[in-house]
Structure formats: structure tokens, C-alpha cells
Amino acid sequence: MHTPVATDDLTQTYRCAIARFCTGVTVITTNTPDGPVGMTASAVTSLSLDPLQLIVCIGNTLATKSAITETGRFAVNVLSRDQEHLARRFASRGVNKFAGLELLADHDVPVLANTVAHFVCETAEAIPGGDHTIMIGDVIACAYDPDISPLLYYGSAFGSLCDEATHARLGFEMQIAAMA
What we know:
By secondary structure, the chain is of the alpha+beta class.
């Protein structure tokens, strides 16, 4: 059942409703003359297979948005279920986000090691979208690890997919409970 909403409460209701859309969690990175910058993002999606493109939505006031606009390149790092600490670190301000991190040396933008996947992009277009900018990236390199589970974001909380063993155990427990 859907809850009707008064117009005055639409923004808050929108925030609560959109939080019910499960997303992956990424860290967007690029380089500046002063060093690497990055931010946590969940507004990332595939756009096209020909050409290979993806979309990243970035807040207009963030330093990472300005840096990507200047450099024209960025990486999208898809975090694993064990990297919630990186999601929180890159969502914070005033910390050295890259301290102690292992980076892959294959690219001219920072690519985090041990992620589910990464995409190295050149900015194809930046489109205004309210208080965000929609960055369309031409994917020039990417890789993935099929054995790593992703970090998810749902209901304003981090989570992960259920592994097969846990899924089977929970299914068995539900069957036993239904028989009781």
C-alpha cells in the first residue's frame, strides 16, 4: 500500500521513497595538481554500450565535481561489501581520503584496489540537473572481479547481498518456522 503525500511534505517523502531504491556504492576519483580527490556516490548508472558510457551525478558544490570539470577524467570504483569504511571515509570532509589506500598504477586517475569493479572515464558531457551535474563518461578502461560481492545502499543504510550459504540457511529456517 502506498502512502498518499501532502504537497508540503513532498520533498521529505521523496527522500524517503528514493531511499527505498537499492543502489550500489561507488567512490568517484580524479587527480588535481594538489593531489587526488574523491567522493562517495550512489547515483551511478550505465548509459550506453555504443559508445561505452556511464552516468555519474555529482553535487554542484563538491570539490570532486570541480576537479572532474577541470581534468576531464575520472574513475568510478564499485565498492565491495567489506569496504563500507571507504564509503564513509569518502563521504567525509576534511580527512585525507587516500591515506594508506592501495591504488592501481595502470591509470592516470586514482583507481582503488580490491573493488568489485572500476571504470576509467573521459568526460563526454556535463549536463545541469538541479543541485547536481550529470556527468556522462566515455569508458576508456574497466575491470571487475566476479568473486567479490558489492556493497549496497538501501533505506539510508549500507548492506550486502546474501551469499548462497546464508540464503540456503535462511530459506531452511523459514521452512522450519512455517511448519511450527
